From TrEMBL:
Assigned EC number: 3.1.26.4
Native species: Pleurodeles waltl (Iberian ribbed newt)
Name of the protein in question: ribonuclease H
Coiled coil ranges: none
Similarity comment text for this entry: Belongs to the beta type-B retroviral polymerase family. HERV class-II K(HML-2) pol subfamily.
InterPro entries per UniProt: DNA/RNA_pol_sf, Rev_trsase/Diguanyl_cyclase, RT_dom, RT_RNaseH_2, Viral_Replic_Matur_Polypro
Domain Reverse transcriptase, chain residue ranges per copy: 1-83
Enzyme class: hydrolase
PANTHER family xrefs: POL PROTEIN, RIBONUCLEASE H
Length: 365
């Protein structure tokens, strides 16, 4: 099939027409622009569905290119995924490129790497939190452009997780959709799966805004639940949504019952509205309470050839502190080079230290 040419809105019009026609012929089949995907357990039933779709579109003057079509395959590559009877997994071509990823030495290469890894984000738990400091390198307001050992470590960990990722299931519109919420200190992860199954549909993660990070733990859970339900309601396809959270009687939570509540009243009104939705059920799971705040603490080894502080070109605090607190150890990233990512030159590895120094500040232009 091909959309008509010469019209500015022909792609959108074509997609709308294909979706409407397919909904009348076979509502369970999926379409993406000019491609149609369907799956069955039995071969004869599958061929009958294919024939019904072809005939139905032919009556409306739509033609298929059978040279490019693949019919009755046990596995299929579709939109970058390998579709199997067990579910969908990342395509072998994608995994081959993933195995060859190397630390970037320019901003452009870093942007390309982030875009590439973003394709497989639904296979990686807590992806948004783990890749956060890689995205900080491309922010225009981020003063330091150094690629460090920790960035390489994050890249390798995500690379290994993506290569070892198991297949995911597709949505079964005959069952209810289950969403399990795992909230952390700076973001949250939730997983989706069909009711009665153990294989996940996807991992999803999101970072809290600066204001949301100051919320009380219960308010962070409410933020996570509201966002997850809004995003996944289309996936439920009219079925009920079952939310599993670490808070008992979540739908009965009010601002007066939450100690140290920080969210403004309009936000609480939004939460109250979403909690009373008729298509959502809430289930309490005490096992999730132990993961209410996920802390990612990495111990950096102190190199044997550590140089005195005054021999470094620049020293910056990397533990998020703006001004050091008295009596607190602060992690320092000590750079012996001014090489930058956007300079395209070699980046020397930094030295990581813990120090009790107070009031030691530097800015890197």
């Amino acid at each position: 099939m091909a959309p008509p040419t010469g019209y500015k809105n022909s792609p959108g019009l074509f997609v709308a027409c294909v979706t409407a026609i397919l909904h009348e012929i076979d509502p369970e089949a999926l379409s993406y622009v000019d491609d149609i995907y369907l799956t069955d357990d039995e071969l004869l039933q599958h061929l009958r569905r294919v024939a019904r779709i072809v005939v139905g579109f032919a009556k409306l003057s739509y033609k298929f290119n059978f040279k490019k079509s693949k019919i009755a395959f046990l596995s299929l590559l579709f939109l970058g995924y390998e579709l199997l009877s067990e579910g969908k997994s990342l395509a072998p071509q994608f995994l081959e490129k993933c195995a060859q990823l190397q630390p970037p030495n320019t901003i452009k290469k870093l942007q390309s790497l982030l875009g590439f890894q973003n394709f497989g984000r639904t296979y990686i738990p807590d992806y948004a939190t783990r890749i956060k400091h890689l995205y900080e390198l491309i922010r225009p307001d981020f003063s330091s452009k150094f690629w460090t050992i920790e960035h390489t470590r994050t890249l390798r960990e995500l690379q290994a997780d993506m290569l070892a990722a198991k297949h995911l299931h597709t949505r079964d519109n005959k069952t209810h959709l289950v969403i399990m919420i795992i909230a952390g200190a700076i973001g949250f992860t939730y997983v989706t799966f069909n009711e009665g199954e153990t294989v996940l549909i996807a991992y999803k993660s999101h970072l809290y805004s600066a204001a949301e990070q100051r919320f009380a733990p219960t308010e962070k859970i409410l933020t996570s639940v509201q966002m997850a339900v809004i995003k996944e309601r289309p996936l439920a396809q009219g079925k009920r949504i079952i939310v599993v959270s670490p808070i008992p009687a979540l739908e009965a939570v009010t601002k007066a019952r939450v100690p140290n509540a920080k969210a403004l009243h309009p936000r609480w009104i939004q939460w109250a509205t979403s909690l009373t939705a008729t298509d959502v059920d809430y289930i309490f799971d005490p096992k999730l309470q132990t993961q209410e705040f996920l802390q990612y603490e990495v111990e950096y080894p102190v190199p044997a050839d550590t140089f005195p502080i005054d021999q470094y070109h620049a020293v910056m605090y990397t533990d998020g502190s703006v001004q050091p607190a008295i009596g607190t150890k602060h992690q320092l990233c000590c750079m012996r080079s001014r090489e930058r990512l956007n300079g395209g030159r070699e980046i020397l590895p930094p030295t990581y230290l813990y120090t009790d120094l107070i009031g030691f500040h530097s800015t890197i232009g």
